[in-house]
Amino acid sequence: MRIRLARALGGAAALLLALLPPAGPARAAGRAARAESLFRQAELEIARNTIDDRRMAIRDLEQATLLDPASALYELELARAYYTAGFLSNARRRYERVTRLAPADANGRYGLGQVWRRDWLKYLDRTSLDRAVEHLSFAARLKPDFCDAWLLLAPLLAERGDDRAAAAAAQRALAADPGRADALLAAGYTAYRLGNLERADSAFAAAMPRLRRGVRGRFEDIAPVASERDTAILNHLPPAQQAEYRGRFWRENDPDLATPVNEARLEYWARVAHAYFLFYDLRRHEWDERGEVYVRYGAPDSVSYNPVEAMVRNTAAGDRSHANVVLYGTGPAYPANSQLWVYRDLGMEVLMQDRTLNEIYRLPMTEDFDPDPAPDPDSLARHGEALATSGGRGVFHRLPPGVRPLPAAGTIARFEGGVSPRLLAQVEVPGSPTDSLSAEWVVLDSTRREVARASGALAPSACDPVERRVADFAADLPPGPYLVGLTVRDASGRRGVVRAVADLARDSSALALSDVVVACGEPGLSVAGGEGIRPAPNPGHRVGDGAPLTAYFEIYHLTPDADGRARFEYVYTVRSAARDPRIWIQRMLSPRSRIPEISATRVEENAGPLRRQFVSVPVQSLPPGPYRLEIRVRDLATRAEVTASADFTRESAPPPSPAPAPPGGS
Fold this sequence. Notes:
30 strands, alpha+beta, elongated, 5-stranded mixed β-sheet, Serine Threonine Protein Phosphatase 5, Tetratricopeptide repeat
């Protein structure tokens, strides 16, 4: 009777009636029975999962906890209902009460971990992250086979920068439930972060078939990092061909063609897994813009919540508004939350807005331009360890975690051959005579099938035999586009990778030039043999102080006269390639003096239509800096002309060595 009256009155009257002291044991038993009845009723309402049913469930659970305040079970269910409804403060207080009523129950600590995790995701407060880790760790210690606690803990430990602890948590989750797809994902992406690529690859392979279709689609989808053209082609392919197209996309963006795993795809999967654990909404079956940006560019260098200085560019003309408000064209400004993600190495800032105040972030609304983030091209070019997909929609690391970089320079050159075109690749790294260095090259054709692979030790550079090591590779290949990868390793595990594309043209009867190859030293240092001339490798295209520029090229299809002699003229020109970084008005008002060109013309005769030619250009008078060598060849019989060019760097003189100290004192 009392409970029915309390429910009818509701609110404060219900609270007062429920708090009235019991009249005796029978009344206490009745209160407990009524509390249990309310709890069972709330369970049914939660199962129906409508807004009204959830409200009724919260009301019934609140009354049950008043009727039986010693029940940790009722407090726990009410805390979960509050959390699901988004009442985080109420949920936290109820979870805290659970931990006091049942200190050995891991669920209260797990719930507090959820609350503080969500608080951290919303406000980006480091204290909230630390509290989430503390409570989840406590829950896992109370219940070592608590898979959900370990799974929630792993990405938070990764966010704190403790990848080893994150991997350990993922392994505990996997041990608790070996067949669970989420646990395999956690094991895979934490293994990648530690640089264990083989383990990561096998864990992802085991997880994929177990994932729900919507989640698996996130890992298979290349749209976030692919160009619009690639995405359009993929969407128009039949399902049987889509997997093959995705595989080709990842082979095209594989940073190291020599290894058995695809480092870019593994990094992408690791990002997708991390974004899934942090940003994926299981009810909506999607993540917001935070997940989208994360899978494209990885973790930002810094994140700020509602930065006061953040502005939204509303039009291409530059109209701006504050990021913490939304303008819908007419009417008042509406409040919004915002996050600013900064990628310093990419020269990029990504502003996202929570316009509905429900922790769903989107890119700002604009009128006449695309707000989709993209790296600054100059910043990307300076970021030597970055590998960008088409249009810069995704950026990956050239080397996996834990691998120290070995600075490598590489170049490729194309030549006509007897039957098929010839492709020449050269690579160079710093190295002394005592270093153990090996190089490997891999060539993929237009279908991204491997058509050439070779390896070998690096030899002393003819340019600098003490400080540099070089290697070169060559292959005769059919005409067509190719992707070339060069990988160098040393004994300590350092690695350098170089990627390049080459299009081998079909042989024709028209006058043609090969690529211009910057070589080391005098022409006599280059090797002649059955394969023709192999210029002494100088893939760094550096010309030392006091040395001339040596370059090699080949001329094809000269026109011989009746005596079999061809006459041609070639002109070489060296121009400065230095860019003036100043703005246009500064360049106009204070123009810098131009570096004079170096140019020379020679007329030669040749026996037959093929000429192999070295040129030596005296560049000693030029100041240090970047330059371009241009070669122009004219066939004097047909007057046809062709040109080719190569860039190089004129190096400055090394600093003088310090004079030895006089013996016997200072």
